[in-house]
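INTERNAL AUDIT FORM
Audit reference: QA-55
Scope: verify that the stored structure record matches its stored sequence.
Auditor: D.O.
Record contents follow.
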Amino acid sequence: MFACAISFVLTGLVEAAVLPYLGLQIGELSLDEKAELLFVDQTIVTAIVLGVIYGFTNTFQPLPDDIFRYELKDPFNLQKGWLLWAGFGLVGALLSVALTGAVMALFSGESPQRETDALVRLLPLIGSSSISTGCLVGITGVLAPLLEETVFRGFLMVSMTKWLPTPISVLLSAAVFAIAHLTPGEFPQLFVLGTALGFSYAQTRNLLTPITIHALWNSGVILILTLLQLEGYDIRELLQAYLRI
């Protein structure tokens, strides 16, 4: 987590230092340029954090066989198929998060007010153009899942399983995953999602499983909102309703 925080700070400092020399001001950028800048920022963050984690773990040679595994083979194997279990995990996550939201609404008596989600801040870019949509899908559907699943499942959870039972490691890593999003009101849903990601990874010991679930989850939201935007719906209102599930 410290590495994640440091990488974001470094990225912001580099951006603030470099943009003026390029004659660019963030406030003057078009929506497409802002989307491209966000994509570059996320690429830098992903490269820095993964580089730090890989460099740190390489100091503990020999590494376990089940750390940082990205294997494409046998995607539909009944026991270890990464794509098959990604499908199971995605369905389980969707049902579990929906049930969690329904229980929260039932006990609270009304939809709780939530913090501003990252998606709300991205609303101006959603559906604005094919370039912006492509950048957002690249950020949320490729770079973010690769980064977060490598950190929380590939590194944190695997490290915990060396001292703790796997179910406890799944739950603890899911809790850290939820806390790291810095939206306390969304902790239950994020915790449930992290748990589904963790158990799916525990089944296959292949990071492609949680990465695929995470990618489909994130990019699915972006694409659905884009289609709704193009159809004339008020996606801000829809998204606020989604965040109160």
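Auditor finding: record pair retrieved intact. The chain is about 70% helix and 0% strand.
Action required: none
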